[in-house]
Write a structure and sequence with these properties.
Blueprint (H helix, E strand, L loop, with lengths): L4 H8 L2 E7 L3 H12 L4 E4 L13 E2 L1 H10 L2 H6 L3 E9 L5 E12 L2 H14 L3 E3 L6 E5 L3 E6 L2 E10 L6 H5 L12 E8 L8 E7 L2 E7 L5 E7 L1 H9 L1 H11 L1 H7 L3 E2 L5 E5 L3 E2 L3 E2 L2 E3 L5 E2 L7 H20 L8 H23 L17 H10 L5
Parallel strand pairs: 1-2, 1-9, 2-6, 4-11, 9-18
Antiparallel strand pairs: 3-5, 4-5, 7-8, 8-9, 10-13, 10-14, 10-15, 11-12, 12-13, 16-19, 17-18
Protein backbone atom coordinates (compact mmCIF):
# COMPACT_ATOMS: atom_id res chain seq x y z
CA UNK A 1 0.00 0.00 0.00
CA UNK A 2 1.64 3.25 -1.06
CA UNK A 3 0.77 6.57 0.55
CA UNK A 4 -1.31 9.06 -1.38
CA UNK A 5 0.87 12.10 -1.99
CA UNK A 6 -2.05 14.32 -1.08
CA UNK A 7 -2.83 12.65 2.22
CA UNK A 8 0.07 14.09 4.20
CA UNK A 9 -0.69 17.63 3.04
CA UNK A 10 -4.38 17.22 3.80
CA UNK A 11 -3.67 15.81 7.26
CA UNK A 12 -1.21 18.59 8.03
CA UNK A 13 -3.85 21.30 7.71
CA UNK A 14 -6.74 19.36 9.18
CA UNK A 15 -8.38 20.34 12.44
CA UNK A 16 -8.91 16.72 13.46
CA UNK A 17 -11.13 15.30 16.14
CA UNK A 18 -8.51 12.62 16.82
CA UNK A 19 -4.88 12.38 15.77
CA UNK A 20 -3.52 8.84 15.93
CA UNK A 21 0.24 8.34 16.01
CA UNK A 22 0.97 4.98 14.40
CA UNK A 23 -0.95 3.06 11.73
CA UNK A 24 -0.29 -0.47 12.90
CA UNK A 25 -2.93 -2.70 14.50
CA UNK A 26 -4.08 -0.60 17.46
CA UNK A 27 -3.92 2.68 15.56
CA UNK A 28 -5.68 1.51 12.41
CA UNK A 29 -8.33 -0.36 14.40
CA UNK A 30 -9.17 2.79 16.36
CA UNK A 31 -9.01 4.94 13.22
CA UNK A 32 -11.41 2.67 11.34
CA UNK A 33 -14.00 2.71 14.12
CA UNK A 34 -13.75 6.45 14.78
CA UNK A 35 -13.98 7.30 11.07
CA UNK A 36 -17.00 5.04 10.65
CA UNK A 37 -18.60 7.01 13.46
CA UNK A 38 -18.29 10.21 11.44
CA UNK A 39 -15.32 11.70 13.31
CA UNK A 40 -12.41 13.45 11.60
CA UNK A 41 -9.40 11.17 12.07
CA UNK A 42 -5.79 11.77 11.01
CA UNK A 43 -3.29 8.92 11.28
CA UNK A 44 0.42 9.76 11.18
CA UNK A 45 2.75 6.83 10.48
CA UNK A 46 6.53 7.14 10.31
CA UNK A 47 7.01 4.18 7.93
CA UNK A 48 5.71 3.45 4.45
CA UNK A 49 3.45 0.39 4.19
CA UNK A 50 3.88 -2.43 3.45
CA UNK A 51 6.95 -2.85 5.61
CA UNK A 52 8.49 -5.81 7.46
CA UNK A 53 7.86 -5.96 11.18
CA UNK A 54 9.23 -8.18 13.93
CA UNK A 55 6.35 -10.28 15.22
CA UNK A 56 5.42 -13.89 15.88
CA UNK A 57 2.48 -13.42 13.51
CA UNK A 58 -0.02 -15.42 15.61
CA UNK A 59 -3.44 -13.79 15.91
CA UNK A 60 -5.17 -15.47 18.85
CA UNK A 61 -8.93 -16.17 18.87
CA UNK A 62 -9.87 -12.92 20.64
CA UNK A 63 -8.02 -10.99 17.93
CA UNK A 64 -9.82 -12.97 15.22
CA UNK A 65 -13.08 -11.93 16.88
CA UNK A 66 -12.11 -8.24 16.67
CA UNK A 67 -11.35 -8.58 12.96
CA UNK A 68 -14.80 -10.09 12.57
CA UNK A 69 -16.41 -7.11 14.32
CA UNK A 70 -14.41 -4.73 12.12
CA UNK A 71 -15.63 -6.52 8.99
CA UNK A 72 -12.12 -7.22 7.68
CA UNK A 73 -11.91 -10.94 8.49
CA UNK A 74 -12.89 -12.05 4.95
CA UNK A 75 -10.05 -9.94 3.51
CA UNK A 76 -7.59 -11.41 6.02
CA UNK A 77 -8.58 -14.96 5.11
CA UNK A 78 -8.43 -14.09 1.40
CA UNK A 79 -4.88 -12.81 1.91
CA UNK A 80 -3.84 -16.37 2.77
CA UNK A 81 -3.89 -16.41 6.57
CA UNK A 82 -3.12 -19.87 7.93
CA UNK A 83 -5.44 -21.41 10.52
CA UNK A 84 -3.78 -22.55 13.76
CA UNK A 85 -5.63 -24.97 16.05
CA UNK A 86 -2.76 -26.59 17.98
CA UNK A 87 0.39 -25.45 19.70
CA UNK A 88 3.57 -27.20 20.77
CA UNK A 89 6.14 -26.00 23.31
CA UNK A 90 9.56 -27.68 23.14
CA UNK A 91 11.85 -27.38 26.15
CA UNK A 92 15.67 -27.09 26.01
CA UNK A 93 15.98 -30.83 26.65
CA UNK A 94 13.69 -31.68 23.74
CA UNK A 95 10.62 -32.46 25.86
CA UNK A 96 7.42 -31.48 24.03
CA UNK A 97 4.17 -30.15 25.42
CA UNK A 98 1.28 -30.30 22.95
CA UNK A 99 -2.27 -29.07 23.26
CA UNK A 100 -5.19 -27.56 21.38
CA UNK A 101 -6.02 -23.86 21.39
CA UNK A 102 -9.36 -22.86 22.97
CA UNK A 103 -10.51 -21.68 19.50
CA UNK A 104 -8.82 -21.38 16.10
CA UNK A 105 -6.15 -18.71 15.66
CA UNK A 106 -4.81 -17.21 12.43
CA UNK A 107 -1.28 -16.56 11.23
CA UNK A 108 -0.58 -13.82 8.69
CA UNK A 109 2.53 -11.69 8.24
CA UNK A 110 2.38 -8.30 9.92
CA UNK A 111 3.54 -6.84 6.66
CA UNK A 112 0.25 -7.94 5.07
CA UNK A 113 -2.07 -7.57 8.07
CA UNK A 114 -0.98 -4.03 8.91
CA UNK A 115 -1.43 -3.02 5.29
CA UNK A 116 -4.93 -4.50 5.14
CA UNK A 117 -6.06 -2.76 8.31
CA UNK A 118 -4.54 0.61 7.36
CA UNK A 119 -6.28 0.39 4.00
CA UNK A 120 -9.59 -0.39 5.72
CA UNK A 121 -9.16 2.67 7.96
CA UNK A 122 -8.46 4.86 4.92
CA UNK A 123 -11.48 3.39 3.11
CA UNK A 124 -13.62 4.28 6.15
CA UNK A 125 -12.59 7.93 5.81
CA UNK A 126 -9.52 8.26 8.04
CA UNK A 127 -6.74 10.39 6.56
CA UNK A 128 -3.63 8.22 6.71
CA UNK A 129 -0.23 9.83 6.14
CA UNK A 130 2.84 7.62 5.67
CA UNK A 131 6.44 8.80 5.89
CA UNK A 132 5.19 11.17 8.60
CA UNK A 133 7.22 10.67 11.81
CA UNK A 134 5.80 12.57 14.76
CA UNK A 135 8.50 14.50 16.61
CA UNK A 136 6.38 16.15 19.27
CA UNK A 137 2.96 16.24 20.90
CA UNK A 138 1.94 19.25 23.01
CA UNK A 139 -1.32 20.21 24.67
CA UNK A 140 -4.14 18.74 26.68
CA UNK A 141 -7.67 17.46 26.35
CA UNK A 142 -9.00 20.72 27.76
CA UNK A 143 -7.01 22.99 25.41
CA UNK A 144 -6.45 20.75 22.39
CA UNK A 145 -3.23 19.31 20.97
CA UNK A 146 -0.60 20.25 18.46
CA UNK A 147 1.07 17.25 16.82
CA UNK A 148 4.33 18.05 15.00
CA UNK A 149 6.09 16.24 12.18
CA UNK A 150 9.33 17.51 10.61
CA UNK A 151 7.44 19.55 8.02
CA UNK A 152 4.02 20.27 9.44
CA UNK A 153 1.72 20.62 12.43
CA UNK A 154 -1.70 19.18 13.06
CA UNK A 155 -4.25 20.42 15.59
CA UNK A 156 -6.53 17.84 17.18
CA UNK A 157 -9.01 17.57 20.01
CA UNK A 158 -7.53 14.27 21.25
CA UNK A 159 -4.43 12.18 20.58
CA UNK A 160 -4.07 8.40 20.66
CA UNK A 161 -0.51 7.05 20.79
CA UNK A 162 -0.18 3.72 18.99
CA UNK A 163 3.50 3.88 18.07
CA UNK A 164 4.51 0.46 19.39
CA UNK A 165 6.70 -0.81 22.16
CA UNK A 166 9.55 1.71 21.88
CA UNK A 167 9.74 5.14 20.25
CA UNK A 168 11.68 8.40 20.66
CA UNK A 169 8.30 9.87 21.63
CA UNK A 170 8.43 7.79 24.81
CA UNK A 171 11.58 9.65 25.77
CA UNK A 172 10.18 13.07 24.83
CA UNK A 173 7.11 12.37 26.93
CA UNK A 174 9.26 11.34 29.92
CA UNK A 175 8.10 7.73 30.17
CA UNK A 176 10.17 5.97 32.87
CA UNK A 177 11.01 2.75 31.02
CA UNK A 178 12.58 4.54 28.05
CA UNK A 179 16.02 4.99 29.58
CA UNK A 180 16.07 1.65 31.42
CA UNK A 181 18.49 -0.96 30.17
CA UNK A 182 16.74 -3.68 28.19
CA UNK A 183 17.67 -7.32 28.68
CA UNK A 184 15.70 -8.60 25.67
CA UNK A 185 15.50 -7.98 21.92
CA UNK A 186 13.43 -9.56 19.19
CA UNK A 187 14.59 -10.88 15.84
CA UNK A 188 12.75 -12.15 12.79
CA UNK A 189 13.34 -14.13 9.61
CA UNK A 190 11.13 -15.80 7.02
CA UNK A 191 11.98 -19.33 5.88
CA UNK A 192 10.92 -21.39 2.88
CA UNK A 193 10.77 -25.11 2.26
CA UNK A 194 8.77 -28.21 3.23
CA UNK A 195 6.56 -27.31 6.18
CA UNK A 196 3.80 -29.93 6.34
CA UNK A 197 4.61 -30.43 10.04
CA UNK A 198 3.49 -26.83 10.66
CA UNK A 199 0.06 -27.21 9.08
CA UNK A 200 -2.54 -26.18 11.67
CA UNK A 201 0.16 -25.72 14.33
CA UNK A 202 2.45 -23.16 15.97
CA UNK A 203 5.64 -24.40 17.64
CA UNK A 204 7.59 -22.59 20.36
CA UNK A 205 11.19 -23.71 21.02
CA UNK A 206 12.90 -22.68 24.25
CA UNK A 207 16.67 -22.36 24.26
CA UNK A 208 19.38 -20.94 26.46
CA UNK A 209 18.91 -17.19 26.17
CA UNK A 210 15.39 -17.02 24.80
CA UNK A 211 12.77 -18.68 22.62
CA UNK A 212 11.65 -18.77 19.00
CA UNK A 213 8.30 -19.47 17.40
CA UNK A 214 7.52 -21.12 14.07
CA UNK A 215 4.27 -20.84 12.14
CA UNK A 216 3.04 -20.83 8.57
CA UNK A 217 1.91 -17.56 7.02
CA UNK A 218 0.67 -16.68 3.53
CA UNK A 219 2.28 -18.11 0.38
CA UNK A 220 3.71 -21.10 2.22
CA UNK A 221 6.32 -19.06 4.07
CA UNK A 222 7.38 -19.95 7.59
CA UNK A 223 7.70 -17.15 10.11
CA UNK A 224 10.52 -17.47 12.64
CA UNK A 225 10.14 -14.86 15.36
CA UNK A 226 12.23 -14.85 18.52
CA UNK A 227 12.85 -13.03 21.78
CA UNK A 228 16.32 -13.35 23.25
CA UNK A 229 19.15 -11.78 25.19
CA UNK A 230 21.13 -9.00 23.46
CA UNK A 231 24.03 -11.36 22.68
CA UNK A 232 21.80 -13.93 20.96
CA UNK A 233 19.84 -11.25 19.09
CA UNK A 234 23.05 -9.64 17.81
CA UNK A 235 24.30 -13.05 16.68
CA UNK A 236 21.04 -13.53 14.79
CA UNK A 237 21.34 -10.13 13.15
CA UNK A 238 24.93 -10.57 12.01
CA UNK A 239 25.30 -14.36 11.62
CA UNK A 240 21.84 -15.93 11.38
CA UNK A 241 22.99 -19.17 9.74
CA UNK A 242 25.66 -19.61 12.39
CA UNK A 243 23.12 -19.08 15.16
CA UNK A 244 20.73 -21.63 13.69
CA UNK A 245 23.61 -24.07 13.32
CA UNK A 246 24.46 -23.67 16.99
CA UNK A 247 20.85 -23.94 18.19
CA UNK A 248 20.06 -27.00 16.06
CA UNK A 249 23.25 -28.68 17.30
CA UNK A 250 22.04 -28.13 20.86
CA UNK A 251 18.45 -29.23 20.09
CA UNK A 252 17.72 -32.21 17.81
CA UNK A 253 14.01 -31.31 18.15
CA UNK A 254 14.64 -27.87 16.62
CA UNK A 255 16.80 -29.46 13.94
CA UNK A 256 13.89 -31.72 12.96
CA UNK A 257 11.43 -28.82 12.81
CA UNK A 258 13.82 -26.77 10.63
CA UNK A 259 14.85 -29.63 8.33
CA UNK A 260 14.65 -28.53 4.71
CA UNK A 261 13.77 -24.93 5.56
CA UNK A 262 16.09 -22.20 4.28
CA UNK A 263 16.15 -18.50 5.18
CA UNK A 264 14.85 -16.06 2.61
CA UNK A 265 17.48 -13.66 1.24
CA UNK A 266 18.03 -10.41 3.06
CA UNK A 267 19.02 -9.25 6.52
CA UNK A 268 17.62 -10.64 9.74
CA UNK A 269 15.41 -8.03 11.37
CA UNK A 270 16.46 -6.90 14.85
CA UNK A 271 14.05 -5.07 17.12
CA UNK A 272 14.40 -2.06 19.33
CA UNK A 273 14.79 -2.84 23.08
CA UNK A 274 11.88 -4.88 24.44
CA UNK A 275 10.60 -3.79 27.85
CA UNK A 276 7.97 -6.32 28.86
CA UNK A 277 5.06 -5.66 31.17
CA UNK A 278 2.62 -3.06 32.37
CA UNK A 279 3.00 0.65 31.60
CA UNK A 280 0.91 3.69 32.32
CA UNK A 281 -1.57 3.75 29.41
CA UNK A 282 -1.53 7.57 29.48
CA UNK A 283 1.28 10.06 28.92
CA UNK A 284 -0.16 13.29 30.21
CA UNK A 285 -3.47 13.57 28.36
CA UNK A 286 -2.32 11.37 25.47
CA UNK A 287 -4.08 8.00 25.55
CA UNK A 288 -1.95 4.99 24.60
CA UNK A 289 -2.96 1.71 22.99
CA UNK A 290 -1.28 -1.46 21.79
CA UNK A 291 2.31 -2.06 22.84
CA UNK A 292 2.69 1.62 23.73
CA UNK A 293 0.39 0.92 26.68
CA UNK A 294 2.08 -2.29 27.82
CA UNK A 295 3.92 -5.21 26.25
CA UNK A 296 2.63 -8.72 26.87
CA UNK A 297 5.20 -11.52 26.57
CA UNK A 298 5.40 -12.80 22.97
CA UNK A 299 5.27 -16.46 24.09
CA UNK A 300 1.58 -15.91 24.85
CA UNK A 301 0.70 -15.20 21.22
CA UNK A 302 -1.62 -12.52 22.61
CA UNK A 303 0.14 -9.33 21.55
CA UNK A 304 -1.62 -8.75 18.23
CA UNK A 305 -5.02 -9.45 19.74
CA UNK A 306 -4.35 -7.13 22.67
CA UNK A 307 -3.38 -4.37 20.24
CA UNK A 308 -6.66 -4.77 18.36
CA UNK A 309 -8.74 -4.97 21.52
CA UNK A 310 -7.09 -1.88 23.02
CA UNK A 311 -7.59 0.07 19.78
CA UNK A 312 -11.24 -0.94 19.81
CA UNK A 313 -11.66 0.07 23.47
CA UNK A 314 -9.82 3.39 23.01
CA UNK A 315 -12.07 4.27 20.08
CA UNK A 316 -15.15 3.63 22.21
CA UNK A 317 -13.89 5.88 25.01
CA UNK A 318 -12.87 8.67 22.61
CA UNK A 319 -16.31 8.56 20.99
CA UNK A 320 -17.86 9.08 24.42
CA UNK A 321 -15.56 12.02 25.16
CA UNK A 322 -16.06 13.71 21.81
CA UNK A 323 -19.84 13.28 22.10
CA UNK A 324 -19.78 15.16 25.41
CA UNK A 325 -20.61 12.10 27.50
CA UNK A 326 -17.31 12.24 29.41
CA UNK A 327 -15.58 15.41 30.68
CA UNK A 328 -11.99 16.12 29.68
CA UNK A 329 -10.93 15.82 33.31
CA UNK A 330 -12.23 12.24 33.50
CA UNK A 331 -10.81 10.76 30.29
CA UNK A 332 -7.40 9.56 31.47
CA UNK A 333 -8.74 8.03 34.68
CA UNK A 334 -11.44 6.25 32.69
CA UNK A 335 -8.85 4.90 30.22
CA UNK A 336 -6.59 3.64 33.00
CA UNK A 337 -9.53 1.72 34.49
CA UNK A 338 -10.63 0.30 31.16
CA UNK A 339 -7.14 -0.68 30.09
CA UNK A 340 -6.58 -2.41 33.44
CA UNK A 341 -9.77 -4.44 32.89
CA UNK A 342 -8.76 -5.12 29.30
CA UNK A 343 -5.12 -6.13 29.78
CA UNK A 344 -4.39 -6.48 33.48
CA UNK A 345 -4.94 -10.23 33.71
CA UNK A 346 -2.94 -10.96 30.58
CA UNK A 347 0.01 -8.84 31.70
CA UNK A 348 -0.07 -10.34 35.20
CA UNK A 349 -0.15 -13.99 34.13
CA UNK A 350 2.37 -13.53 31.32
CA UNK A 351 4.81 -12.13 33.89
CA UNK A 352 4.00 -14.89 36.39
CA UNK A 353 4.69 -17.63 33.83
CA UNK A 354 7.65 -15.86 32.17
CA UNK A 355 10.39 -17.88 33.96
CA UNK A 356 9.09 -21.08 32.34
CA UNK A 357 9.51 -19.66 28.83
CA UNK A 358 12.82 -17.78 28.88
CA UNK A 359 15.13 -20.76 28.60
CA UNK A 360 16.50 -20.59 32.14
CA UNK A 361 16.41 -23.09 34.97
CA UNK A 362 12.62 -22.95 35.33
CA UNK A 363 12.14 -23.91 31.67
CA UNK A 364 13.66 -27.31 32.41
CA UNK A 365 10.52 -28.05 34.43
CA UNK A 366 8.55 -27.99 31.18
CA UNK A 367 8.17 -31.73 30.61
CA UNK A 368 5.24 -33.66 29.12
CA UNK A 369 3.68 -33.97 32.57
CA UNK A 370 3.51 -30.16 32.67
CA UNK A 371 1.11 -29.88 29.75
CA UNK A 372 -1.59 -28.33 31.99
CA UNK A 373 0.79 -25.40 32.57
CA UNK A 374 1.02 -24.67 28.85
CA UNK A 375 -2.75 -25.01 28.48
CA UNK A 376 -3.20 -22.64 31.39
CA UNK A 377 -0.90 -20.10 29.73
CA UNK A 378 -2.96 -20.35 26.54
CA UNK A 379 -6.14 -19.53 28.45
CA UNK A 380 -5.17 -16.95 31.08
CA UNK A 381 -3.08 -14.79 28.74
CA UNK A 382 -5.96 -14.27 26.31
CA UNK A 383 -8.91 -11.95 26.48
CA UNK A 384 -12.56 -12.70 25.85
CA UNK A 385 -13.52 -13.74 22.33
Amino acid sequence: MSSDDGIAAAAAGLEADVAIVGASLAGSCAALLLARGGLRVAVLERARFPRPRICGELLSPDGVAVLGRLGVLPAVRAAGAATIRRFTVVGPSGSRVESTLPAPALSLSRERLDELLARAAADAGARVAFDAPVVGVDGSLSDGFVVRTPGSTLRARAVLGAWGRYSPLDGRLGRPFFRARASLFGFKKFLRGPAAHLEDRAILHLFRGGYLGLSLVEKGRVSLGALATPAVAQEAHHAFDSLLGRLTAESPALARDLRGLVPEPGPTLLSEPVHLGRRDPCAGDVLLAGDAAGVVDPYTGAGMALALRSGEAAAALLREYLAGELPATGVTAAWRRRHRRLAGRQLFFSRLLRPFFLGGAASRLLVPAAAPLARLAAVVTRGPV
